[in-house]
Amino acid sequence: MPLLDKLDEIFASMLGKPTDSKAALAVGGAAEETEDPYADTKAIALRVTDFVKDCDKSRWAFERQWFRSVLYYLGNQWLTWDGRSRKWRERKLRKWVPKPVTNRFASTVDSIVSAIQGTKVLPSAWPATSDPSDIGAANVADRVLDVIGQEIKSERVRQHLAKWIVLCGDAFAYVHYNKLDKTLGLVRINSLACPLCQHVAQPLEFESGVCPGCQQPTEPQPAEDVFEEYPTGRMCCDVLSPLEVYLSLDIPLMENHTKCTIVRRMTKDQLETLYGDKAKDLPIDSAASTKSAQYFMKALAYSTEDMGNNMAGFSGSEVVTTYTHVELPSVKYPEGLEVVMGTDETILECGPSPHFDTDITGNKQYYLPLCKIGYEKVPGRLYSKTPAYDIVSKQDQLNRLESLIELAVMKGTYGTWLLPTGSSISELSGEPGLKIKYTPMGTGGHKPEVVTNAPFPALLLEWKTQIQADFEELGGTFDVLKGNAPRGVSAGYAIQLLTERSYGKFASVFAEWEEGWTELYQKSLKMFRTYVTEPRLRKIKGSCGHWEIQSFKNSDLAGAVDLRVEGGATKPRSKIAEQALVETLSKLGVINTQDPEQRYQVAQMFGMGQVLGAQDEDVRYAAGEWEELLAWQPPVDPTTGEPIVDPEMVAQGKPWPEGGPQADEIFDNHMVHVSEHRKPTRSDEWKQLPKWKQLFWKQHMITHLIALQPVVDPAAQKPEKPESSGKNAETKPSKADEKSDKTTDAIRTGGNNTMGSGGKNQY
């Protein structure tokens, strides 16, 4: 039995699915066996084939655009569409016609991708109701979302999604659980033994209460040192182009679709590992047997910057196209349907849909595992629009213009030669200093001469400048978007306006991006709740610099939760605009650049904290003092719970036990320490500290604050004594001065002169 079949049985047992091939239906109070709808593989294969054919009827016009965008991105731009073969081919021009490519298309696409990719979406979980289980699940879900992001490799997913969205208008995220993935280790399942016949088998085989060996009712016992190991599996999110996803074009809204087909290419070895002998006889792909979408995907795999339609990879390639078809529950398939099929309609896997979540009532809620994210919706149409379609024509204009400019330069340089008949000259190379030998006798005395061409028209350069400006306008890729300061603009307010204008072009895609990622995390959360039975670890670094390990599994999400994204949370920010804003706030006095802490924060904002010195090391050292405080365990009085103070230490002016963090008045960066020491006082850990530790931490902070005070020469602070009329007159300090001196002493002693005396107010 292939490993995948074994895992299916294990998961079926865990999820409470029936493992037999018959479904029992209650009719009139009696159970009646009916035929399993998933057993008719021929009907299912025909169902999948018909669906793909229906979707494929009108797709080729979109496929043409999608494939062209990728070819243009690679630099293959001197192309023409062959309507007969439905393929892009190289444009045939005379050999002497230049075909330059200054790929503004790719640079514009990269700028747009960078703007979209830079917006990270991590929704927050909200309880669906006021039920305590929902509230608890929401608290857990907020942290589980971080685990999901790490497991599905959200950073890589975001990069690929953004690229496909800009190039093709749409991209799809396929959320699924890979049961064969060993990244997270193996799960050990101990075997059971029948006490009657000592037959050893997996727990699944004893599920019916009958021994599979002696066929007698039994209560199996754990078999010592007998077990099998299976992959833990992993949550996955595959990024798919629209070329790989088949949907009905008659349904414009994604939420109304009930079925989809995913077309992917896999090697024979991969398929045989998954499906065993079923995959051995699958035919490999060929150019003749491949649909246009798969032809394009295959061509892209072998396309380079100077060769667009290289299909040599078809020959001898051990690659097979597979169809993964998923349906929501219907009358015919009450538990949904998932089919994996080869190009020859060979069924590799077939059964109920594994994409579901179980609500509080125990009912399964099925969903399609696809999340569609588009650029800009077109009313009444499934597929979205992208500025890449608009800038293709501008790229063509730029290519033709540069070709014309190059021709004009060549003609202006070499001129046009008039060669008399009989001169014995057939061709001139244009080499500088070329010596021309001709026969004057045969030309009647005429000699070769050059005719000067018309001067280079300056209008062509003006046209080129306008085309380049059109790229920015159509794509919205102004200087602020690229991270450059706008030419001729320095005022912060003006830069902010240009930034708003630039990002206003992307309002629709940002909204789609936010909605799509929320749906992606929502479905991933459902997948987590269904399949993650083994704990997942979350490693976080607290505000105080210490690490915390948290463990989660599906049982921690027992309640219902909703996911939301705060308005404007995904709006990207331009570094240039941020810099201009900081400058404006500095001029208004809102930001004090003379404050070391604020100056360091501003530098960190722009990724230049290193210019202010090794403050990162100071931050780590300051955070370590908090850890030192938490781990500090001096001897305590069992009756009071307060630390025992050595009288000799008190006498030496050291009221606190040794072991706690100590401030170094000379070498510490006191501003960094004050900033970092404030952070933990807003945490739950601070509230749980004993009072004496809180008081010690406050005194520790006061030491740093005192060290920050400027050192002033006392002599310079004393006012000159006024001339007195009396011979021995003396100036007595005022009450205000006395009060000031007492305050200073209090700060320097921690506000309590009795500290360490063992008295009532010691702590």
Summarize the structure.
The protein is α+β, with helices and mostly antiparallel strands. Residues 18-33, 308-316, 724-731 and 742-763 have low confidence and may be disordered.
Structure notes:
With 763 residues, this protein is of the alpha+beta class. Among the domains are: 186-225, no CATH class; 387-477, no CATH class; 607-711 and 734-748, no CATH class. It has a five-stranded antiparallel β-sheet. Strands 10-6-18 form a three-stranded antiparallel β-sheet. A hairpin with a 2-residue loop joins β1 (23-27) and β2 (30-34). 26% of the residues are buried.
* pLDDT averaged over residues: 76
- Largest sheet: spatial strand order: 11-12-13-14-15
Largest sheet: 5 strands, antiparallel
Roughly what fraction of the amino acids lie in strands? 15-25%
Global Rg? 38 Å
**Can you tell me the residue ranges where pLDDT is under 50 for at least 5 consecutive residues?**
18-33, 308-316, 724-731, 742-763
> What is the count of DSSP helices, taking H or I runs of 4+ residues?
22
**Helix residue percentage:** 25-40%
Count of DSSP E strands? Answer: 23
Write down the overall geometry: flat
First and last CA, distance? 71 Å
Structural class, by secondary structure, is alpha+beta
List keywords for this structure.
763 residues; alpha+beta; 3-stranded antiparallel beta sheet; flat
Topology:
Layout: H1 3-15, E1 23-27, E2 30-34, H2 41-56, H3 60-74, E3 79-82, E4 87-90, H4 104-117, E5 124-127, H5 132-151, H6 154-168, E6 170-178, E7 186-193, E8 200-201, E9 221-231, E10 234-240, E11 245-246, E12 259-267, H7 268-275, H8 292-301, E13 319-327, E14 337-342, E15 347-351, E16 356-358, E17 364-366, E18 370-374, H9 387-414, E19 416-418, E20 449-451, H10 459-475, H11 479-482, H12 492-504, H13 507-531, E21 536-541, E22 547-552, E23 561-564, H14 575-588, H15 596-605, H16 615-631, H17 647-651, H18 670-678, H19 684-688, H20 691-708, H21 714-717, H22 735-748
Antiparallel strand pairs: 1-2, 3-4, 5-23, 6-10, 6-18, 7-8, 7-9, 11-12, 12-13, 13-14, 14-15, 16-17, 19-20, 21-22
Helix pairs in contact: 3-8, 4-6, 4-9, 4-10, 5-13, 9-10, 12-14, 16-18, 18-20
